[in-house]
Amino acid sequence: MPPRDNGHEHGEPVIRDNRKIDPETGLPRVRSEAGADAQAHSDQAQAPERAGAAVDGELEAQLAERTADLQRLQAEYTNYRRRVERDRVAVREQAVAGALTELLPVLDDIGRARDHGELTGGFAKVAESLEAAVTKLGLAPFGQKGDPFDPTVHEALMHSYSPDVTEPTAIEVLQPGYRMGDRVLRPARVAVAEPEDAPPASDSAASGD
């Protein structure tokens, strides 16, 4: 039986024309259905990857937004706690200062009794316990004879001139002052002396003559 004719002689290569333009008509050649199917299959294979990338980007944006919201809420809560703590401390200090102010006349009586030697027996122990309690709460007396006069912490009840001072000076403490921390609960009531004016220069010269 003679061999079947395959349309070409044995050993001759098969040449396929893959040019996209038809040389005879000059028109674009239509891509074969198999090629179109291959391209469609490639597009379908890449579609999930593109969709996944878009979803990942959206999730990252949402995550960043939620993280920023949480950080803002955390900062607001921290500031709120600080304000509450600051207000709580201020309210406590105000209450303690009010109670101590009410006790100042009692402390004045104790001081006068001590100065007159009347602080004895059980009354002395009670007075010492009271003074220790108010000291523990932060109450501290101030005002000493010889202190420079300071109108922010002193109240001048008496005024005079003296050659023994070089600046306005508290020469007598009539009633001690009290403070709690930096807060002055009562100024020290004092007698103040100022330096005497120097004699005029003409008087000095006349006395020298």
From TrEMBL:
<dbReference type="GO" id="GO:0000774">
    <property type="term" value="F:adenyl-nucleotide exchange factor activity"/>
</dbReference>
<dbReference type="GO" id="GO:0042803">
    <property type="term" value="F:protein homodimerization activity"/>
</dbReference>
<keyword id="KW-0963">Cytoplasm</keyword>
<dbReference type="GO" id="GO:0051087">
    <property type="term" value="F:protein-folding chaperone binding"/>
</dbReference>
<keyword id="KW-0143">Chaperone</keyword>
<dbReference type="GO" id="GO:0051082">
    <property type="term" value="F:unfolded protein binding"/>
</dbReference>
<keyword id="KW-0346">Stress response</keyword>
<feature type="region of interest" description="Disordered">
    <location>
        <begin position="1"/>
        <end position="55"/>
    </location>
</feature>
<dbReference type="InterPro" id="IPR000740">
    <property type="entry name" value="GrpE"/>
</dbReference>
<dbReference type="Pfam" id="PF01025">
    <property type="entry name" value="GrpE"/>
</dbReference>
<comment type="subunit">
    <text>Homodimer.</text>
</comment>
<dbReference type="InterPro" id="IPR009012">
    <property type="entry name" value="GrpE_head"/>
</dbReference>
<feature type="compositionally biased region" description="Basic and acidic residues">
    <location>
        <begin position="1"/>
        <end position="23"/>
    </location>
</feature>
<dbReference type="InterPro" id="IPR013805">
    <property type="entry name" value="GrpE_CC"/>
</dbReference>
<comment type="function">
    <text>Participates actively in the response to hyperosmotic and heat shock by preventing the aggregation of stress-denatured proteins, in association with DnaK and GrpE. It is the nucleotide exchange factor for DnaK and may function as a thermosensor. Unfolded proteins bind initially to DnaJ; upon interaction with the DnaJ-bound protein, DnaK hydrolyzes its bound ATP, resulting in the formation of a stable complex. GrpE releases ADP from DnaK; ATP binding to DnaK triggers the release of the substrate protein, thus completing the reaction cycle.</text>
</comment>
<comment type="similarity">
    <text>Belongs to the GrpE family.</text>
</comment>
<dbReference type="GO" id="GO:0005737">
    <property type="term" value="C:cytoplasm"/>
</dbReference>
<protein>
    <recommendedName>
        <fullName>Protein GrpE</fullName>
    </recommendedName>
</protein>
<keyword id="KW-0175">Coiled coil</keyword>
<dbReference type="GO" id="GO:0006457">
    <property type="term" value="P:protein folding"/>
</dbReference>
<feature type="compositionally biased region" description="Low complexity">
    <location>
        <begin position="35"/>
        <end position="47"/>
    </location>
</feature>
<feature type="coiled-coil region">
    <location>
        <begin position="56"/>
        <end position="90"/>
    </location>
</feature>
